[in-house]
Each structure stands twice: as structure tokens, then as C-alpha cells.
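Justification of computing resources. Each target in the renewal requires a structure prediction run like the one illustrated here; the chain below, 116 residues long, is used simply to show the kind of job we budget for.
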Amino acid sequence: MDRREPRLQGDADRKQNLINWLRETFGTARGSTARMLEVALSTARPEIVIRYRDQLRTNMEQVQQQIVDAKEAARLDAATREQTLTKLTGNQRTVNAKIAEIETLIADLTAVRHAG
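Resulting C-alpha cells:
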């Protein structure tokens, strides 16, 4: 039995050494990965900001163009409304004049009928 005890102790030492090596390796890998991610983020961040600003600029230009288009459409609608109003006002005058003419004729006919 004395022979096996040193061997068992050696196995336990090797196992502990392996566990320690694995912990150190994982720690190193974790730190290295964190540094690589930080470098990647530091490198990508300016590009992301530039693209985001470009996208904002493009969106703002599109919105400004939509505002200009809406104002132009409103102006055209106002011009069309004004033309329609002018036309309808003219038609109203014509109709009122015809009504007055007809009322005059009715009055004349009524006077002739009562006179005769």
C-alpha cells in the first residue's frame, strides 16, 4: 500500500495542477476576449456614429422635402379653391340676375293679368 499512496498523491497533484491551469487559461481567454471586444467596439464606434449622422441627415432632407411638397400642395389647393370660389360667385350673380329677371316678368305678367 505504501507504493500506491505516493502515486495517488501524484495523481491528485496533477489533477490540481490541471485545474489551476484550466482556471488560468480561462481567465486569460476571458481577459483577451474582453480586450478584443473593446478594441472592436472602439474601432467600430466612429463608423457607427458617422453612418448614423448620415442617416439622420438623409432623413431630415426627406422630411424637409415633404414639408416643401405639402406647402406647395396647400398653395395649389388654395389657388384651386380661389378659382372655384370666383367661378361660383360669378354663377351666383348670374343666377340672382336671372331670378330678378324672372320676378320682374312675373310681376309684369301679374300686372297685365289684373289690368286686363
